[in-house]
Design a protein that fits this description.
This protein is mainly β. It contains 2 helices and 35 strands.
Length: 486
């Protein structure tokens, strides 16, 4: 689909928009597709004071289809502009979809790199070792909206010969005067890895090295991201093919990080233990960027491929999926911590504060709220906590296990468990059809979609004898203006 085709179909798009407006599950403070399908966040960056959020997008179908890059911009993380779609599959190198990619900001504009997907149809293929082109593409935009350069920089022939046809999701890392492009890979022995490519000009790239963890860890590493934070190198990725171990790796595919030491000059790579970014049901394809304040910000897709639960409640209204709230990262005591951006506080209204012993029940409007509980007497392993967030959604902590349990509104989501030895605090953000739970200052997070039959829901604290303080806020909505296509 090129831009001309998109504009030709636009009248249909307007009709879909009217249907979208009828859905009570439309989120108040999470980014969603205007219509159709959304998945991976792409090209996250800030340029000249404007934050750009691009995303995988199929505008005319609330299902899997040929991908564009949709586009939102914001200066304050509360007021947004829905821009025209940014990127279309309009060349022979990306004809079957502009897949995931990233941005690299320079003084004169933004460089983007993404995977151009081509799926061959002339005969039968396994689409693992053959039948697919994964082309690395380069774009340049002087403003984040208009493209002046679109070119092919690498094909399958430029990747190591032992790679499958699954090499994708480029992200740029700068070090010692060089640019390194990290891409996720699957080799011919079905082992997940990342590939490093090197350039000194962002245009000419050569394979530099292939990096594996010491022990095999899944068959494919999607959406890798390499960055430094608080003196520590971190590599996030989404490994596929990792078996569940106790309460670890409960989802079909994982999303997490390795603390790493990558000595690029000497090609020496050390991996510490993989840790999941989120123990909930709906997190995948996270991407980070550093904003102009120096904050490392993470956004993920609130979805997951091939799960045995669904988000079909919104499909009849011509849309599906959403992104997480933006989260600020920090690294402390060997752990990556996540907290919602401070700008989210602008949405607060109708606040209340009380002692935990006085908190019994609360009915925030549209189930949209922020709830913070601080346990003054640190809740130890032999204590317990139980909170009812909605009619059939419960949080509990007992004997060192933190549980999220869901009923019918989970659409197949039942239980996720995290091992938490001591419970110090909880921060819960509830939106119409999404919940994000931050445990112990973001040491652990749980994210889930939820589809209640009605939004007149009550929050009930079901435990006795806990000491602490509570702060609650109803939350307003993002303001989104539409950029009209010309």
């Amino acid at each position: 689909m090129n831009k001309e085709t998109y504009l030709k179909e636009y009248p249909k798009y307007k009709n879909m928009r009217e249907n979208v407006k009828r859905d009570k599950n439309r989120l108040h403070f999470h980014m969603m597709p205007p219509t159709g399908w959304m998945n991976d966040p792409n090209g996250l960056c800030q340029f000249r004071g404007v934050n750009h959020i691009y995303f995988q997008y199929t505008p005319f179908l609330a299902g899997w289809g040929t991908k564009l890059w949709g586009h939102y911009t914001t200066k304050d993380w509360v007021h947004y502009t829905e821009e025209e779609p940014f990127l279309f599959p309009d060349t022979k190198w990306d004809r079957d979809g502009v897949y995931s990619g990233s941005a690299c900001v320079k003084e004169d504009g933004i460089h983007y790199f993404y995977t151009g997907n081509v799926k061959l149809q002339d005969k039968e293929y396994d689409y693992i070792m053959n039948g697919r082109e994964q082309n690395t593409m380069h774009l340049f935009s002087p403003d984040g909206k208009n493209i002046t350069v679109k070119e092919l920089v690498m094909t399958n022939e430029d990747y190591p010969s032992n790679m499958s046809k699954h090499v994708r999701d480029p992200k740029i890392y700068e070090k010692d005067g060089y640019y390194y492009m990290i891409q996720g890979g699957r080799d011919d022995e079905n082992r997940g890895c990342v590939l490093l490519f090197q350039s000194d000009n962002l245009k000419d790239w050569k394979w530099y090295d292939t990096v594996y963890s010491k022990q095999p860890f899944g068959y494919m590493w999607e959406c890798p991201d390499l960055f430094e934070i608080d003196g520590q190198q971190i590599m996030t990725c989404c490994p596929q093919g990792v078996e569940q171990q106790g309460y670890e790796y409960q989802n079909v595919y994982q999303c997490g990080y390795f603390p790493v030491s990558f000595d690029m000059e000497n090609k020496k790579y050390e991996f510490s233990e993989f840790t999941e970014l989120d123990k909930g049901f709906d997190i995948y394809a996270t991407q980070t960027f550093q904003d102009e304040k120096g904050r490392r910000i993470l956004i993920g897709w609130m979805g997951i491929p091939d799960a045995d639960y669904d988000n079909d409640a919104t499909v009849q209204y011509d849309w599906i999926h959403a992104l997480t709230m933006p989260r600020e990262l920090s690294f402390k005591d060997g752990k990556l911590l996540q907290k919602p951006l401070k700008e989210m506080q602008q949405l607060r209204k109708n606040e209340f504060h009380c002692a935990l012993s006085e908190f019994v029940q609360w009915e925030p409007k549209d189930s949209c709220f922020e709830l913070h509980i601080d346990f003054e007497e640190r809740t130890e392993k032999n204590s317990s906590v139980k909170i009812q967030l909605r009619e059939d959604v419960f949080l509990s902590w007992e004997k060192g296990l933190f549980r999220l349990n869901m009923g019918k509104s989970g659409h197949g989501r039942k239980e996720r468990i995290a091992e938490i030895k001591q419970l110090r605090n909880l921060t819960i953000f509830s939106d119409t059809s999404a919940i994000e739970i931050f445990i112990n200052d973001g040491e652990n997070v749980m994210t889930t979609r939820v589809y209640s039959e009605n939004l007149e829901q009550k929050v009930t604290f079901l435990s006795k004898g806990n000491v602490g303080n509570v702060a609650g806020y109803e939350l307003g909505s993002f303001v989104i203006e539409k950029h009209e296509e010309k």
